[in-house]
C-alpha cells in the first residue's frame, strides 16, 4: 500500500521578494513564484504522482501554488480543503515590515531571536511552537488518516507551518527544526509506514 504525503512551500510571494515579514498578510505570487509552483507540479508529474485529496491554507499564495500543481497534473478539480490551521506563522507586529527596518528598530539580536527561536513569539504574534499547536492536531485528526488509508495527499502551505509539521513527522528537536530551510516550490515526498513513521523521504529539486 502506498501512503504518500507531499509537502510543498508556496512559490515566491511579492513580499518574499521585498524582504517583508508576511505572516497572515495575503500577498500573491510573483512571476517567479507562479513559475516555481508550475515547475513543482511538473516534477510531481514526472515522478508519476497523482493525488486523492489536497490541503492548503487560508492564504492565497498557498492556494494558488496548490492550484498550479494540480493543473500541471491534470487534476484541476481535485477536492481541495482550505484551513487556517495550515496558515503561516503569525508575525504579529512585524507583519508588513521590511526585515532590515525591523532590525534597525529592535536590534539585530532581538529580531534574530523572534525569527529563529522555537518558543519566543514576536509582539502580538506566534512562535514556531505556537504554530505547531494548531498544525499538529489538524494533521493528526484530519490529514494523516487519509495517508494511512493509502491515499496520496498533497499539502501546499508555508515555511513555518510546514516546519512544524516536519518536526512532528521526523521527530526533530527544536534546535534541529529551526535550522531547517524550506525552499519555495520544492516538493518533499514522504512515504509512511502503517504506524505513521517515515519509510522514505525524497526532495524533488530541479
Automatic annotation (TrEMBL):
One of its GO terms (biological process) is gluconeogenesis. The record marks 158 as: Transition state stabilizer. The active site is at 10 (tele-phosphohistidine intermediate), 88 (proton donor/acceptor). The keyword Isomerase applies. It is an enzyme of class 5 (isomerase). Pathway: Carbohydrate degradation; glycolysis; pyruvate from D-glyceraldehyde 3-phosphate: step 3/5. Transmembrane segments: none annotated. This is 2,3-bisphosphoglycerate-dependent phosphoglycerate mutase. Its EC number is 5.4.2.11. It comes from the Bacteria. It comes from Pseudochrobactrum asaccharolyticum. Keywords: Gluconeogenesis, Glycolysis, Isomerase. Catalyzes the interconversion of 2-phosphoglycerate and 3-phosphoglycerate. It catalyses: (2R)-2-phosphoglycerate = (2R)-3-phosphoglycerate. It holds the Pfam family His_Phos_1. Homodimer. One of its GO terms (molecular function) is phosphoglycerate mutase activity. Substrate binds at residues 9-16, 22-23, 61, 88-91, 99, 115-116, 159-160. Belongs to the phosphoglycerate mutase family. BPG-dependent PGAM subfamily.
Amino acid at each position: 500500500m502506498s501512503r504518500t504525503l507531499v509537502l510543498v512551500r508556496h512559490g515566491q510571494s511579492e513580499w518574499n521578494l521585498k524582504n517583508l515579514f508576511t505572516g497572515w498578510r495575503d500577498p500573491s505570487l510573483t512571476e517567479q513564484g507562479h513559475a516555481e509552483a508550475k515547475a513543482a507540479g511538473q516534477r510531481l508529474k514526472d515522478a508519476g504522482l497523482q493525488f486523492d485529496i489536497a490541503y492548503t491554507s487560508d492564504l492565497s499564495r498557498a492556494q494558488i501554488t496548490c492550484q498550479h500543481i494540480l493543473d500541471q497534473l491534470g487534476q484541476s478539480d481535485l477536492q481541495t480543503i482550505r484551513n487556517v490551521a495550515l496558515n503561516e506563522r503569525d508575525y504579529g507586529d512585524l507583519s508588513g515590515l521590511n526585515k532590515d527596518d525591523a532590525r534597525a528598530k529592535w536590534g539585530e539580536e532581538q529580531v534574530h531571536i523572534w525569527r529563529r527561536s522555537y518558543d519566543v513569539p514576536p509582539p502580538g504574534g506566534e512562535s514556531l511552537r505556537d504554530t505547531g499547536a494548531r498544525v499538529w492536531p489538524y494533521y493528526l485528526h484530519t490529514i494523516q488518516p487519509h495517508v494511512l488509508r493509502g491515499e496520496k495527499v498533497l499539502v501546499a502551505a508555508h515555511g513555518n507551518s510546514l516546519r512544524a509539521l516536519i518536526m512532528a513527522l521526523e521527530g526533530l528537536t527544536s534546535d534541529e527544526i529551526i535550522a531547517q530551510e524550506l525552499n519555495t516550490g520544492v516538493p518533499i515526498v514522504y512515504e509512511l509506514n502503517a504506524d505513521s513513521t517515515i519509510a522514505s523521504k525524497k526532495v524533488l529539486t530541479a
